[in-house]
Amino acid sequence: xxxxxxxxxxxxxxxxxxxxxxxxxxxxxxxxxVNYETKYDCSGMKLPPISDKDEGIYRFKDFFSLPENAPHVxxxxxxxxxxxxxxxxxxxxxNNLYMKDESKNPxxxxxxxxxxxxxxKALADKAPGVVISSTGNQGASTSAYCSVAGLPCVIxxxxxxxxxxxxxxxxxGAFVFVTPTMEDRGIIMEKLxxxxxxxxxxxxxxxxxxxxxxxxxxxxxxxxxxxEQLGGKAPDWFIIPISYGDTLYGISKGMHDLExxxxxxxxxxxxxxxVFHSCENNLSAGxxxxxxxxxxxxxxxxxxxxxxxxxxxxxxxxxxxLASTSNDDEALAMQQELAQTxxxxxxxxxxxxxxxxKKLVAEKKIALDEKVVVLITSTGIKTPDVTQLYVxxxxxxxxxxxxxxxxxxxxxxxxx
Length: 416
Fold this sequence. Notes:
four-stranded parallel β-sheet
């Protein structure tokens, strides 16, 4: 925590008062729900060498707020690959297209970076357990890190959550409960925090203010890694699937750290890839405090919300970025294209970054020689029920060439 200087409101600068997860009381008096944010002074700092003794995200521990002697609950998160997407890049006419593949984290999602810090802080704070409201990736990640830390993990989810996601969450030993409504999850979760002292691994406030300000810093490491993987340069564009926007905000913080250290002279343009125009409409309206947008059910479950946080909109605005949307049909088609051209089976929500990229290229907002990074947040293995919407039923055949040819034509429409 060499660079860490403290915590204050992301909007008005009010110093930390009360519980960090309650948000700023000064803004709340004015009717605004705003999260705190950690503050750092990175001038004079340097990124650690890649051969440093600490691995993964903890190579960058000086850019976190954990005390020096705090436990690091780690299962190998970070150091995810940056792939060059030559085939899709060629289709779009882009010469420098890259994909940061967060599905290569231990529980196959970007959430591991944040959850590692959440559980490390819960141990440091001597919390008796951890509680979260989740429909998938963050619940599974929290459960995994709690199992390593030896902390009870309680997850409240909803009836429509994917069966495979329920299994992921339960596999690590979490106590998983279904509540009748989304709102009910927050009610019971808050009771465990207030009455039993459990550490919250997701936000308690509605409208949402974002995840723990201490834990979002885990996403800064995505910026640091991409900078190194691009040979000491930042991309011109970074396209990120968002729900409330913690990941984009954390990446923004990392880019600011790189700027403060003198590694980069210009911030990349951050793009929010979303479903229901939550960031896009608030940007265009010039809203300081985001207004909720209409939403409905979507197969892009991980990012299907009409809500976005103050700090996410601010992060996009201050770098000259923008936001655009991905509908379900577009995301399904892109999931298939990515798998069948680049060999990466991404969660359908993750494919929003490539859907939005395709639109920006068509709108001539991205120059063909600019360096572009898209973020893939998780794997399609977690939601096979979604992929089954477009893959054909597997035919049963007799062991003859004739039957093989028949099935190829009927089931796969493939001429031989």
